[in-house]
Design a protein that fits this description.
With 263 residues, the protein is an alpha/beta fold. The protein has one domain: Aldolase class I (TIM Barrel). It has eleven helices and eight strands. An eight-stranded parallel beta barrel has the order 1-2-3-4-5-6-7-8, surrounded by eight helices. β7, α9 and β8 form a beta-alpha-beta unit. α7 runs antiparallel to α8 and α10 packs across α11. The longest helix has 24 residues. It is globular. The N and C termini lie close together (6 Å). The mean pLDDT is 95. The protein binds pyridoxine-5'-phosphate. The site of pyridoxine-5'-phosphate (PXP) has 19 residues, from β8 and α10.
């Protein structure tokens, strides 16, 4: 049986807390429950705008987590200095735009080649392994290797969006994705294509000696297809787990996801 590591992203607990600026829900309570319920890793994103995770959360989570902590961050110098000083088990470099709702695409490893290389060097100097959050393309895998990363995290957002437009009520809702307002056969072709890109990229990355993770938009309905990709050893999942936990509790939500990520 293939056991994929489940990184539980608990940013959304902090989103709810920051909505009221009170210490409720308590992110450390989420941390304890996640560790107890089978999370193999905790993932958090220290954004430049601090819209959810705060610096003190990073310190506390690193101090009290019973599993490794994957700290997502941009290549901003101040953020990198913080990451280097707190020494997470791994740093994942992600693109960041202030106006975005969430991380909308992979890192552009070509336009920001020098900045990313410098960021990787700084993190490596602090003995922090680096993953790069990238779109699933062969070129990105090669560039990630060239830049010296240990791991890539494949952005599954396009796959997840296409899956949702085909298999849920999303197209009829006011969150329908206008750019994917396409006939079903077209969505179906694109979904197959997106999955194929993920498979080819994962295979290529592994051949290059990179470890392969995936994440973004994964949920209880679509994760099964990603789990089938042999080279993927880790998934980072946030929104769907925290959303489900409102109705089932966090323990149950994580256990259920764990059962789906063991193929
Ligand atoms: N992986 C990375 C690099 C991310 O930026 C995010 C979103 O913060 C996730 C995984 C989790 O995505 P989601 O919340 O859609 O599960």
């Amino acid at each position: 049986m293939k056991q994929i590591k489940l990184g539980v992203n608990i940013d959304h607990v902090a989103v709810l807390r920051e909505a009221r600026k009170v210490n409720d829900p308590d992110i450390l309570q989420a941390l304890y429950i996640a560790c107890e319920s089978g999370a193999d890793q905790i993932t958090i994103h220290l954004r430049e705008d601090r819209r959810h995770i705060q610096d003190i959360d990073v310190k506390n989570i690193l101090q009290f987590s019973k599993v490794p902590v994957n700290l997502e961050c941009s290549i901003d110098k101040n953020i990198l200095d913080i990451v280097s000083s707190v020494q997470p088990h791994r740093a994942t470099l992600v693109p960041e735009k202030r106006e975005e709702v969430t991380t909308e695409g992979g890192l552009d490893l070509f336009t920001y080649e020098n900045e990313i290389a410098y960021a990787i060097e700084q993190l490596h100097d602090g003995l922090i392994p680096v993953s790069l959050f990238v779109d699933p393309t062969i070129q990105a895998m090669e560039q990630a290797k060239k830049l010296g990363a240990e791991m890539v995290e494949l952005h599954t957002g396009l796959f997840a969006n296409l899956f949702a437009m085909l298999n849920s009520s999303l197209p009829k809702s006011n969150h329908a994705l206008k750019e994917l307002n396409l006939p079903r056969y077209e969505l179906s072709d694109r979904l197959e294509n997106a999955l194929e890109q993920l498979k080819l990229s994962a295979r290529h990355a592994k051949q290059l000696g990179l470890e392969v993770a995936a994440g973004h938009g994964l949920n209880y309905h679509n994760v099964g297809q990603i789990v089938q990709i042999e080279e993927i050893i880790e998934l980072n999942i946030g929104q769907s787990i925290i959303a489900r936990s409102l109705f089932t509790g966090l323990r149950e939500a994580i256990k259920e996801m764990k059962s789906l990520t063991s193929s």
